[in-house]
Amino acid sequence: MVGVQACPPGMHTATRPLPHHETATPRSDRPSPKLSTVLIGTVAALSVPLIVALVVQRQPRWNPVLDFAMFELRLRDVGGPDTPLVGPVARLYGHGQQGNHPGPISFYMMWPAYRSLGATPWAMQVASAGMHVLALGVATWIAFRRGGAALALVIVALALVVRGIGVGALTTPWNPYLSVVWWLVFLLATWAVIDEDLALLPVTVFAGSVCLQNHVEYAALTIGLGILAVGTVTVRARRDAAVRHDLLRWSAVAVAVGVLAWLPAVLDELTRSPGNLSVIWDHFRHPAEDGIGLGHGVETTLVMLSPWRLVAGSAVGTNETAGSLLPGSLLVVAWSAAALASSRAGHRPLVRLHVVLGAALALGVVTMSRITGSVWFWLGLWLTVTVALMIGATAWTVWCLASRRLDAAALVRLGRVATAAVVVVAAGLTVTTAIDATDTEPNNPRLSARLGELVDSTVAALGAASGPDAGRRGPYLVTWTDPVSLGIHGFGLLNELERRGFDVGTDEASGAAVTDHRVLAAREATAVIHLSVGSDIDAWRGKPGIEQAAYLDERSPRERDEYDRLWAEVIDGLRTSGLSELVPQGADPLLVPALDERVPKDIRDKLSRLMDIGLPTAVFVGPPDAFASAAGPNQVPG
Length: 638
Description:
single chain; 638 residues; five-stranded mixed sheet; two-stranded antiparallel ribbon; 27 helices; 7 strands; globular
């Protein structure tokens, strides 16, 4: 690792900015072989926790459910006639239909590893980790270009991000997770561009495209910071012919990168009516409900800016509205003081980094305030990543202030101590994360195991059919009635049956989730495979022409009693609270009242526990006309 360098001489001058050649951190477009080796070694070291997690998750086999199953369906389509042109399904509704996140770039980036490793769920986990390793590599490369203290702060920030997000999330194929390390890349590249390293402009466009195509919440963040970077450089280019030449050259490359990255989304817009971009635009033009507001947005931002989430590795799955405002508020105060100090000292690279972080926070508060409905933890994961750079920038400022009064010999000694400290902190974070990774489990292993049993029994029942096709004659229409979890196992069943070679589809209500080419009308199906949960099972047992292919009830006697007790308490609590209209009836999903903010927290907690316990699940197979009278539309998640 390149040693931590002291701030340039003269930084104590508060009234005169230093010449750029004195303040700019050293960078090299062509690292020496030695630096290349260090760079590769650094990325490899940071990746160790991910590698440990992947080894641990190799067995038992993971069976993706819900969002992860939907993600794999689209990933499997890459390279074929139905290659996806849009991103994963989203809580976006416009022009009377459900939309998707803006683009498919992650599907394309993950597909080579996924396909080469056998297109298994584990291969998808490896491909997910590969997305983050690539981002770690790009971020480290940017850090080596900047050199000195910038390199040190980025290395520690990367180790903090891996620690804070956790290897369980970083090996999970889910679009909110796939953006987080690329957001750090985007921030670093934006800073580099503003600090006159225009060769990073294409990297800024690519990293921003990854973030935005994965999740629409990055729209204001990426576009706003992009405008800041281009605007700053353009103003500078008007006064400097050399900057103008570089801007034109690298802008051309950046435009080419942007065109390639966004071509699929544009093709979708031109070939469908309405296109997905139109659906997204209509959603934000005519929101179904108001956002949470500026006050709540600021409060949520401060909660999620807590540095403890990084250190403790608790950024994922944490209730984002719970916790003290104090840690985040103290960080903002400390960072603001550091930004002011760097400005007074005239350290331009450091000032520009603070400007980028300040703009990101301002745009972020606006983004958070526009959230509608429940504020899920994943909507602010970018804040957790931003915290790492805020800590790094503050530490860099302190380092500069502390070192400016020392003589040359003392600076050398202090630099060695600081370098050792950086190595120890980064190594300690990485080793701790790697040790924790030995206990990594795939997302919701209980649901995964349950789905595996249902799929095995269903495949065995279909395979028992007579004829040379061994039950694979299809196409099969897969439907479900799931009052507990909005089709968690329904999407998983569809995905696993397709993996095993069955010709399957589902109804139009799920089209945005599983892609249009998997939409199948009942009249086109040879048979229906229907997944029933809870009381829906009794509705299908004994019907003429319908056979039960699978049945599973993992609840212990104690859990059954607990379910009945909590169910009665929930009904009584909703009625007492004047919310009788939210009492689930028949196949009504429990998730609806569980997400309603009018419902008291203790009742929502009981609903969450009911969903954890679950209900008996069965799979039935029969002719389409036997299901026509009672089978309702699938429940599609938002």
